[in-house]
Structure formats: C-alpha cells, structure tokens
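so my prof wants the structure for this chain in the tokens format not the other one, which i didnt know existed until like an hour ago. anyway here's the sequence
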Amino acid sequence: MTTFTLCTLSSSSSSHLPCCISNSTTEEVHLGSPLLQRQFIFNTNWRKGRRGRGVSCGISCSAEAKTVVIGLAADSGCGKSTFMRRLTSVFGGAAEPPRGGNPESNTLLSDTTTVICLDDYHLLDREGRKEKGVTALDPRANNFDLMYEQVKALKAGVAVEKPIYNHVTGLLDPPELILPPKILFIEGLHPIFDSRVRDLLDFSIYLDISDEVKFAWKTKRDMAERGHSLHSIKASIEARKLDFDAYVDPQKQYADVVIEVLPTQLIPDDNERKVLRVRLVMKEGVKYFNPVYLFDEGSTLSWIPCGRKLSCSYPGIKFFYGPDTYVAHEVSVLEMDGQFDRLDELMYVESHLNNLSTKYYGEATEQMLKHGDFPGSNNGTGLFQTIIGLKIRELYECIVAEKSVTPLEAARVF
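here's what i got, hopefully its the right format
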C-alpha cells in the first residue's frame, strides 16, 4: 500500500533556497524559523520488482513555485522521444539523462526543462502485467494517485522521489530525485487521462498516428532497437488495440493541440509510408496560444509552394489551412502533405506562416536545420513539432510574466 509523508519545511529566507530532508516514516518535519513554510508530499513506499525491496526518501524543495507543466500523450512507438528532443532544444541546451544516476533512467534534464516518462508510474513490472493479464495501457497497471501527487508537488516547486521503470529488464527500479524545473514535460500513454493530472497541465498535446503509419514506425523501432521479431510486433499491436481505443485515444478530445500523421494523398495506393500527410489541429481559445495560420487568418486555402523558390521532387508538397470542428471544438488546421528536398529552402515556407512565435526571422528554419538528422525532419512531422516548441516557449514566457505581476500591479490594470 502506498503511503505519503506530509512535511512542513521552514526557512528564514525568501530566496530560492534548496533544502534536503531524509525520512523513512510518516511524520511531520519542521526546519528553521516559521517565517517561510512550504509543505510537500512524497512517496515512502515504492516497489522494486523482483530485484528486492527498499525504501528511499530524499526531498529537496525551493521557495519559488513557477514550474509550467506540459503534457504529451501518444501510443508507444509514435515518436514521443524525438518530439521531446525538439521541444527541449527550443529552450537551449541538450536534454540528457541524470548524471551519476541509474543508466536506465527515462528522465531527461537540461538547464530549463525536465522530461518525465510516465511509464515510471507503472504499478506492475512486465511479469506482473503478464500474470494479471493487463497491458501497460490499462489504468489498473498504473499508479495515477502517485503520478498526480508528484506532478502537483513539482508544479508547486517541491522535489520528489520518482520511481523508475526499467525498459530493458521490465522491472521497477529504485526511485530517483527529481527537482522542480522551470518547465516540466510529462510524456507517455496517459498524461491527459486522469482528470486530476489533466487539470495541472498548462498545455497539452496529442500525437495521433494512423494505424498504417504506426505499424511502419513501430516495426522499424522495435526490430532495430529492441530486437523484436515482426511476428511479435504484430501480436503486440493487436493485443494492445482494445486498450488503446479505450484508454489512450480518447485523450485527444482534451488536448490543446493534436498532430495527426496520416498516409499521403499525393501517391495513389502508397504502401511504403515514406511520404506523409501531417495535420496540425489547434484548438481555439487556449490561453496564451494563438493558432498558426497560412497567408490569411480564418480563410480556407490550398497552397503548392513548389516552383522556383522551393525544390520539390515527386510527389511534391501541398499545404492546406482552414477552420474546422474537431471533437466538438472549434479549431484551426494547418496541413502539409509531402516532404522537403532541401531544408535550407524551408525559409520560403516559414515566411508565409504567421503566429509562429519566433524571436527572429528564420528561427523555425534554423531549428529544423539543427536537427536535420531527426526522424521526420523532411516532412510536416518535424516542422509542426518545431512550431509547437516555439509556441510552448512563448506560452511559458507569458505564464512566468503573469506570475511575476504583483497584486498592486494587477490592481493598476483594472
């Protein structure tokens, strides 16, 4: 059974002061003077899987709470890791695993961002799921209570001891210390599933990969990186489909942005899935998020940019933009079908897109060129992921600016 420890941490300084406590029992802890107090909740009972048992509790907290939380939901093998690398790159510096920690950690850290993989909140290890007859997509296989408590704590500026799911062994490893970052990305199967976690998100994204494309991507990844056979991959997809439809796919109705990856319409009866049609579905009315538009906001139009300013080999490139309705929400849709021959020519496309949230002309193209070796860099997948990264940076800056306004300054506005 999971228990939580409630601690009240006090400090005589109002500055950004890190503090650490070690404790293995459920009790209230007081440090310092009563001038500054922070409360936090952390897990004191974790499962280690079949390697053994143990209890670890290390807490660190800061006196400021400005963590912005972004959620990215998608099925397994749908490019979440690549998306995270693009997003964190926009904020500067490469996101890397924690130094000196568990080499199988799923966490990525940079100066500004922390990426948490929600697989770490599995309640059951791989063998446990087999014994219970459930997949990782089933809510019963995940600890949403702990997920909620820890995301809430990090958003409030409090560090946590987060579990680690070891993808190599399939076991639950000892936890790792996660300090509250400026921007917390939580990515996985269920970041928008639990209403409590969903309410903590400042922005949410859903990657919607069509079955045809998903199979091609998952086959390539699992055969090359994980040594799985084609037969086992097919069996895994079929075994997970009912749970995916029931527990993962419905999350897209709550997402602020959906990126749909579909087979191309430029090649009749295409079976190779190398050319893709990608749709950026942007919900209207999201605070601090103005949808990107092509040429004229609110219009409906198609654009073929191939010609003297953009090199296009067969089957070419086609853009679409227009208003639409998605799961009962008013949205704006930007679509790209086809792929770029030369990324350095992307500047021509960028110059016709508006509300990109770039800080200077050509920044989107620069970001794409920086990661030209990433999967999807020659099509709408990479382009729209990069655009969302720029939009999230603007959203973060707006949220921080709003939090920095004093009550007196806010009163003057009115």
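also thought this was worth mentioning. The longest strand covers residues 317-326.
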